[in-house]
Amino acid sequence: MTSTELQATIARMGTAARAASSLMAAASTSAKNHALTALARLLRESAAPLAEANRKDIAAAEAAGLAAPMVDRLRLTEKVIATVAEGCEQIAAMPDPVGEITGVKRRPSGISVGQMRVPLGVFGMIYESRPNVTIEAASLAIKSGNACILRGGSEAIHSNLALWKLVQAALTEAGLPADAVQLVQTTDRAAVGYLIASPESVDVIIPRGGKGLIERISREARVPVIKHLDGNCHVYVDAEVDLELALKVTDNAKTQKYSPCNAAESLLVHEAVAAKFLPKIGAVFAAKGVEVRGDATVLALLKDVPQAKLAEATEQDWSEEYLAPIISAKVVKSVDEAIAHINRYGSHHTDAILTTNHPNAMRFLREVDSASVMVNASTRFADGFEYGLGAEIGISTDKFHARGPVGLEGLTSMKWIVLGQGEVRT
Amino acid sequence: MTSTELQATIARMGTAARAASSLMAAASTSAKNHALTALARLLRESAAPLAEANRKDIAAAEAAGLAAPMVDRLRLTEKVIATVAEGCEQIAAMPDPVGEITGVKRRPSGISVGQMRVPLGVFGMIYESRPNVTIEAASLAIKSGNACILRGGSEAIHSNLALWKLVQAALTEAGLPADAVQLVQTTDRAAVGYLIASPESVDVIIPRGGKGLIERISREARVPVIKHLDGNCHVYVDAEVDLELALKVTDNAKTQKYSPCNAAESLLVHEAVAAKFLPKIGAVFAAKGVEVRGDATVLALLKDVPQAKLAEATEQDWSEEYLAPIISAKVVKSVDEAIAHINRYGSHHTDAILTTNHPNAMRFLREVDSASVMVNASTRFADGFEYGLGAEIGISTDKFHARGPVGLEGLTSMKWIVLGQGEVRT
């Protein structure tokens, strides 16, 4: 395809998505739920063709010498298919966000003013590797009454095409427009460039993938972007704290899984408990092979921990998202210093205070400028399912529109409605 | 100032605003209200120096041959000063939006998850002519716990500087950081370019002014923008309608004032009532000198109205924001055609249906994709004061974050809070 043809293709898809979005915005809850339950059924019935398509992607990935963890993320196992099918049914069971009317108040002029929740319109989803995102994005689009244009990774193209055909069939079965969920069928990277520069047909772009992808999209997009770049999450252990709780939560936040964006990457400890707490958590980390990059006080307190992997933290370490068995650690003099450090070096994703002191808990909640702020809980809870959103299309570290895990409501906006009886402005 | 110096100045202001925004986010409601009531008092006490500064701007504008309406918009009359002083007191009397906690729910894991309203951080306000915007923006920034950087029109620079000095004094009197409200003191237009490209220090830009200014900012901004470009507002007169009500509301929407963005620019009439309604509203428009640009049916129905000013509507007329005694008019076959026309040609600002038919009212409310959608009320009500927001910093026709009139809440966002007792993820 020439670049002119590709641009025309993306433009045609945009026009079709815009038309489908009007029908989706007006679609009944029962039609949307019908499509979602049909999709769950079709996924379960299609194990064989999905496996066949997935085998092509796996073979190509292995032939291209992709690293094993990358190949694993491509796999559409029976378990993955069962999980996404169940996800569709869970979204069908959730309340329809569209049409909710809130806060209607009578004004002195006589008019009643309130707000109605409506779909955003068309979103573009740009993602890498994991083909299950195709179904997650499609199902959230359907329930929230949006149309979407999906652009998956080229390495998953056969799997994505097979999944998308099921979405088309489910939409058609429910009497909804098939163009409500479209898939970019070329692996040409220029398609992304055209998609993110089409404000006339795309209302928002949601990228999910590596930092390089997200930086490129943020830089070049001419439409709003819901994104997070980094998850440099902090755990701050306050002066007054239940040490058992602090050990358990810090351990979980860092070591339960190393790769998620809500895993802790930096530990701050108040000087009043540093001598008690740090050797204990240091021993836990040493047992699990977690390297500690600390300031001088941390290193001194950990020097007698058997098998501890220690290094001196550089300035860069305070900003680092390791996604690995490494944690930076610093001793601070006060909750103020902890808050200032987090607001300066953090990525506005998720940060937790562990404390028994109520004023400090409240100050941390109010003053840490992050999408999720926690008291006495593991940062690993920052997740759409754990928050009760049913599903998440992504996590936002922007302050605009949607912060943190973005579910169905993040794919909608509130318009004003005015109900009158012939009132005029004087 | 060289462009390097100017860039450094804007960067310094940004750093100072960022620092001030942390203090403002944590400021007490009483300190913020103290600053607002002090500002109201200082405005009332400063009639003489404000008039003196304003005279310089007026004289320069007249010497430069500015049109009389432009010069009028510059005037800081006693009435304007009294109004903005009263506005500060009204904002002081409003509830503090910051710190509101909503929707806290216990999750199966044991954590409680909810949301807390917090300031956006730093906003940049770019505006033209009317110096009272300086006080409106400053007072909304103070109450919402944000810092702001103001960039008024060069023609109002002396007035803006005089007003801003009062804001500085009020902040200082209340023990709040003076840098919470800064004014760009040079009239060099390059300052705008640096300001809108500073995501590290500015969270959102709010432009208020002509279409040229707003288009330039939308194109060049590297931070989110809250804006509206056009107000092509529609009144649709449905088949089943109270004709008296329709006449009164249509008249008000078009003729109560011609220049506001919420004035009606286009009239759609169902064919079932066209022959009854159009000659009547045509006579009203003729009496007030309003030109009607109609389709063939409209022109035929208005041809016998004495003194009617008629023209055939071109395709361009359906998209036009006249801000003048001109209205486009079209006869439609159904509410569907009306909705489709509005969604195609409108500017997503404010649109009204006049009807006695409940299903049509509900369909219009749901399906018209605009920031404000009205039933049986004049589009002129689309306004922060009329909606009960107390004040507005601007009107947004974007779908993201804030739609329609933007008041204190539009200058905040919701972050997630998690309250635990040591829960960990399993």
TrEMBL record, chains A, B:
Pfam families, per the entry: Aldedh
Organism of derivation: Piscinibacter gummiphilus
Enzyme Commission number, as recorded: 1.2.1.41
Name of the protein: Gamma-glutamyl phosphate reductase
Subcellular location field: Cytoplasm
Stored SUPFAM superfamilies: ALDH-like
Protein's gene: proA
Biochemical pathway: Amino-acid biosynthesis; L-proline biosynthesis; L-glutamate 5-semialdehyde from L-glutamate: step 2/2
Keyword terms, alphabetized: Amino-acid biosynthesis, Cytoplasm, NADP, Oxidoreductase, Proline biosynthesis
Main enzyme class: oxidoreductase
Similarity annotation: Belongs to the gamma-glutamyl phosphate reductase family.
Lineage per the UniProt record: Bacteria, Pseudomonadati, Pseudomonadota, Betaproteobacteria, Burkholderiales
InterPro entries cross-referenced by the UniProt entry: Ald_DH/histidinol_DH, Ald_DH_C, Ald_DH_N, Aldehyde_DH_dom, G-glutamylP_reductase_CS, Glu-5-SA_DH, GPR_dom
Stretches assigned to the Aldehyde dehydrogenase domain: 8-284, 318-383
Physiological role: Catalyzes the NADPH-dependent reduction of L-glutamate 5-phosphate into L-glutamate 5-semialdehyde and phosphate. The product spontaneously undergoes cyclization to form 1-pyrroline-5-carboxylate.
Molecular function via GO: glutamate-5-semialdehyde dehydrogenase activity
Record's catalysed reaction(s): L-glutamate 5-semialdehyde + phosphate + NADP(+) = L-glutamyl 5-phosphate + NADPH + H(+)
